[in-house]
Amino acid sequence: MQSMSVEVIEVGPRDGLQNERAIVPTAAKVAYVEALVAAGLRRVEAVSFVHPGRVPQMADAEEVMARVPRVPGVRYAGLVLNGRGLDRALTAGVDEVNAVVVATETFSRRNQGMSVDDAVRGFGVIAERARGAGLTVTLTVAASFGCPFEGEVDPARVADLVRRCPGAQEVALADTIGVGVPAGVRRLAEAVGEATAAPLRFHFHNTRNTGYANAVAALEAGAAALDASAGGIGGCPFAPAATGNIATEDLLYLLHRSGVRTGADLPGVLAAAALIEKELDGRLPAQLGRAGIWPPPAH
Amino acid sequence: MQSMSVEVIEVGPRDGLQNERAIVPTAAKVAYVEALVAAGLRRVEAVSFVHPGRVPQMADAEEVMARVPRVPGVRYAGLVLNGRGLDRALTAGVDEVNAVVVATETFSRRNQGMSVDDAVRGFGVIAERARGAGLTVTLTVAASFGCPFEGEVDPARVADLVRRCPGAQEVALADTIGVGVPAGVRRLAEAVGEATAAPLRFHFHNTRNTGYANAVAALEAGAAALDASAGGIGGCPFAPAATGNIATEDLLYLLHRSGVRTGADLPGVLAAAALIEKELDGRLPAQLGRAGIWPPPAH
Q: What are A193-219's pLDDT values in tens digits?
């Protein structure tokens, strides 16, 4: 692989828990984050500042942020969709803002309630205000690989959108519905790499079992960061289409055994996953907890 | 990817069913194979000629072989471990013999009941007899990526074993316990590629969620064939460590969308997986049947 180290960004507390049926108590969320930080993860997307009526799983975002350990070197991100979300994020004291723009018009209107043009303008305002407040700004392009309403998404369209959203210190390409394949990852990385000088981050779901292969392809294409959720949470095992993020522990297993450093500690991540498993229905999509680290740690 | 086409070898009827708790009736096995052949799969590892006391799931191997459709261009393989198994395979009329040698001494003695030296000699006899009878011979090296008793397996050790087993028309490298990662696949393909001129085939289990990334790495390293099982069967969903093969449908999804041709038909494979799911406990490890083909087929 091209990169011999990569940043793994833990998104279980946000994207994972946001998509679980269960509403996890604040204390359990905080314990999950504590375990993740103890495992050496240095960037944690901890919360989402969206309307609690729409996403009740994230209604306690401020309380979570007030209670997570503020360790030197650990940065917490909050997802925001609009100015109101940014106000909350600033008050709550996140280190990073992850602002989302959707690649397609239909998905943008249905999911964010605004046109892509309005989202682009909104991003500009969010980015300027957030950077003015000293926060790091990530631009996430949702549905970068495919849209449930418009089908295939042309990498050129994503690249064009990225060009229209300057001001991000990082560009995250999200396979929101889990349809990407490695060849598509390479095409998208190339197109977006020409549109921005910002480091690229990829966000994969393992919906069709391509998530880990996509992660490898992203790394080989020069990705600086990969999202993952401890336990692979976010896809309810009893839902018809499980759509969990790729699991942090399974990703670390693959990376570490391939000689790619992450700074994170695999047994520590397994402990975090075991903590959150108790709060959720059904078994985790992650496999490593069941199969075991290999070779087995020496006694 | 280097190869723009690859042979996908269906091993669900053999490796899949052999590792399921349920004993599937012969008629259901035959229906599964019929569906796989109808889906365009041209090589099917249909049975295993091992002692029925040890593997009761395969006790009806002769009856299965007597009833599967003999379509021009479709080749059936049977797995054999010794001369007695080869006798049965020849009588049953398989087209190919898959003969197994284990990469490590301890696993060989425990699983096959013989030393590696004896297995190498046995392979020579099997290969000569099978080729004399006009059959294609595959050498499978089990535990090529790791051994439950001896830990990591050096690619040089696998390559040495392959050199000691001439007479195979194909060399299959099996990640029997599902511990491989892409970097290891590349190392092994390189080492074994120098040891034999025979085409390389890879056999992955998705035990730790690395199976599909490994398949991509194998293709990029020049693999001619990949094993997969429709439904991803072989890993009981209720067992502590699910160890199913990579799923044929999920692999085809990844390959076809990456521009790699296989000759197989995805909806047909989904139909085969749905057939076998009814015979087994719990849900299939394959994801595509739940998530759906994407983009959705036109109406």
A: 999 999 999 999 999 999 999 999 999
Would you say how long chain A is, in residues?
Answer: 299
How many Å from the N-terminal Cα to the C-terminal Cα in chain B?
31
Residue A125 to chain B, least CA–CA distance (Å):
34
Mean pLDDT of B83-108: 97
Measured in angstroms, the CA of A276 and the nearest CA of chain B are apart by 18
Q: What are residue B100's phi and psi, to 5 degrees?
A: -105, 135
Helix axes B26-38, B266-277, angle to 10 degrees: 170
- Percent of chain B past pLDDT 90, that is, above it, reads 91
Report how far residue B276's alpha carbon sits from residue B285's, in angstroms, rounded to the nearest whole number: 12
Of A213, A254, A258, the CB nearest to B254: A213
User: If DSSP codes are grouped into helix, strand and coil, which group holds residue B283?
Assistant: coil
CATH number for the region A7-289 comes to 3.20.20.70
Show the tokens assigned to B106.
């301890």
Q: Which of B64, B236, B260, B270 is catalytic?
A: B236
The residues spanned by each domain of chain A are 7-289
CA–CA dist B152, A65 (Å, integer): 43
Hey, what CATH topology would domain B7-291 get? TIM Barrel (3.20.20)
Q: How, if at all, do strands A170-174 and A200-203 pair?
A: parallel
Q: How far is the CA of A249 from the CAs of A9, A78, A288, in angstroms?
A: 12, 22, 7
Question: Are the CB atoms for A166 and A198 separated by under 8 Å?
Answer: no
**pLDDT tens track for B243-257:** 799 999 999 999 999
Share of chain A residues as helix, strand and coil, in percent rounded to the nearest 5: 40, 20, 40
